[in-house]
Amino acid sequence: MNKLIAIINVIAWSGFWAFGYLAVTAKGLTESQLVIAALLAFGGLVTGIAAYMRLVRVSEASGYARKSNQLDAAARNRAQSQGGI
After folding, report:
1. Rounded to whole angstroms, how far apart are CA atoms 65 and 42?
2. What is the pTM of this model?
3. How far apart are CA 80 and CA 60, in angstroms?
4. How confident is the model at residue 84 (pLDDT cuts 50, 70, 90)?
5. CB 11 within 8 A of CB 43
6. pLDDT tens-place string over residues 36-61
7. Dihedral angle at the C-alpha atoms of 29, 35, 41, 43, nearest 10 degrees?
8. From CA 8, how far away is CA 51, in angstroms rounded?
9. Residue range 21-41: average pLDDT?
10. Nearest 5 degrees, angle CA 13-CA 19-CA 33?
11. Cβ neighbour number for residue 47 with a 10 Å cutoff
12. ∠ CA 6-7-9 to the nearest 5 degrees?
């Protein structure tokens, strides 16, 4: 499953860059073609971010990557009650 998500991630980012470049630099395209290219680029962006975040979550849970330095709820509440920034 992780390999499938990684493949989807690569394809989504490739689509984002390809269609984004096409939407920004293309000359002679109709307005509807530019809108379609922009929508495909946006779809690639959203799918790429979602797939990347899923891969990060899975890799942290499996122990492949270090856990992020986020505080747990109790430590966060204690720090906020002491007065932070």
Report:
1. 28
2. 0.72
3. 26
4. low
5. no
6. 999 999 999 999 999 999 998 888 77
7. -150
8. 7
9. 92
10. 150
11. 17
12. 65
